[in-house]
Structure formats: C-alpha cells, structure tokens
Amino acid sequence: MVDRLFTEPTLAELYDTFCVGRRDFGFYLPLVMSAPRVLDVGCGTGELLRLAKRSGHTGRLCGLDPADAMLDQARNQEDVEWVNGDLASVDWEREFELIVMTGHAFQVLVDDDEIRAALVAIRSALTVGGRFVFETRNPRARGWEDWVPENAVTVEHDGSMVTMAHQVATPVIRDVVSFTATFSSASWDRPQVSRSTLRFLSQEKLGGFLAGAGLVVEEQYGDWDRQSLTSASPEIITVARRG
After folding, report:
1. What is the architecture, at CATH level 2, of domain 3-138+202-242?
2. What fold is seen in the domain 140-198?
3. Per-residue tens of pLDDT for the chain, all 243 residues
4. How much of the chain is helix, strand and coil, in % rounded to 5?
5. 118, 85 contact by CB (below 8 A)
C-alpha cells in the first residue's frame, strides 16, 4: 500500500518487512543513480535513498516525509539529508535534477488544490530540464476491489507474525477510495487500525494537472518492466520534465 499506513512507531518498524521485494526499486534506482541531486518526496523509511548510497551514489540525496516515525527508521543512514515536512513546508528553488514519489505516495494528494500546490512546489524544486518521476494506480484496473480481508498478508517480524488486512469503505465515490488497514499479532494486546484515503486519477486528469503546473509528460508506462500503458495496466508510471 502506501507509507501513510505506517505512521505509528510500531507500524513504521514493519514497513520495510511488508515491502520486501518491491519491483519499483528496479525502475527507480537507475534513475536515482544517474542524477547528481535527488529529492524523494514521501520517502518513508528512506529505503530507496539508502539503497542508492549503498550502491555508490556520491551526490546529494534528500528525503522528505511528514511522519516522524518513518524518518526515525530512515535516519539510520546518516549521510542522506532527511527533512521532516511536506511540499508545503519547504521552499526549494531549482535544487534537484530528479524528484521521485514512490510507493503510490502521489495518491495521498486528494483535493485538486492540494495536487496543484504540490506540483507547483515540485516544478520549483526542479532544475530546468529536471524530471519528476512517480506512479499512481490505474483506476481502470480497479485495484481497490482486491483490498478485502480475504487477501490479508502476514509477515514475520522480530519473531512474531503480523497480519495486515484491508477493508474498503463503500460505496466508492468517483475517483476517491477510503479504506482501513488493520494490523494484528498474537503478541500484541490489541490490533492497530490505520485509515487512509487515496485519489485514483485517470491518465487524462493526471496529464491536465501536470500541464497546468508546467510539467511535460515525456513517458508513461503501465508496469515496472516498462510495458505500454493500457486500460488493463495496474500502474500509471509517469516521467515528466520541467520545461
């Protein structure tokens, strides 16, 4: 799912365990390694930037996230710049050749004005010709229909089994999906419940927001192996450039 499910300290410790084997890193890491200055918006535990450091990145790596608990995990890597906040709380001007938003973090932006403000801030932070690369789930694939308790996922963490189960609030209204994620373990006194709301923008609406912010779509893919984007694709992976 997305980082926002894991903002409590106990759950933040679980994030990387639930995300083992992420396919998106194979797509994003080469982009990060080829850019001298990189900003990861909604960086969560910072795993992508930590991986870049371990892979020999020698430039500036900066992770931005509003969740203290997630950044507490990220700060284990001391030679990366970790910033507690969001795009509304920073004022960068032409500082990064690459900005990424992974883990479907872009979908946390729900309101139109919130999306516009975030994209304006991203464009401002990019150098001329810099790229913004991110993904959203393709609404035509209706992926939220699989977010049911029957598809719960269980992982082992510190010798205990922890289960994450989802339940979507119905009816789904237009392109906004609200849901709960319930985390439970026999070693806990009680389950922990996280509530989230995500925006499932169509390719057309997404393009309109990007163009309105002065960002030009260079490429779009439907999956992490760079398949063409179709109505059945699970993802809308976008590479946009500051004009």
Report:
1. 3-Layer(aba) Sandwich (3.40)
2. SH3 type barrels. (2.30.30)
3. 334 566 677 788 888 888 888 999 999 999 999 999 999 999 999 999 999 999 999 999 999 999 999 999 999 888 999 999 999 999 999 999 999 999 999 999 999 999 999 999 999 999 999 999 999 999 999 999 999 999 999 999 888 999 999 999 989 989 999 999 999 999 999 999 989 999 999 999 999 999 999 999 999 999 999 999 999 999 999 999 998
4. 30, 35, 35
5. no
> DSSP class of residue 184?
E
The residues, any chain, with a CB within 8 Å of residue 214's CB and separated by 6 or more, are 123, 242, 243
- Say if CB 119 and CB 215 are below 8 A apart: yes
Q: Where are the alpha helices (DSSP H) in 101-151?
A: 112-125
The segment(s) of the chain belonging to CATH 2.30.30 are 140-198
Residues 39, 48: contact at Cβ < 8 Å? no
Domain with CATH 3.40.50.150 in the chain: 3-138+202-242
The phi, psi pair for 86, rounded to 5°, reads -135, -175
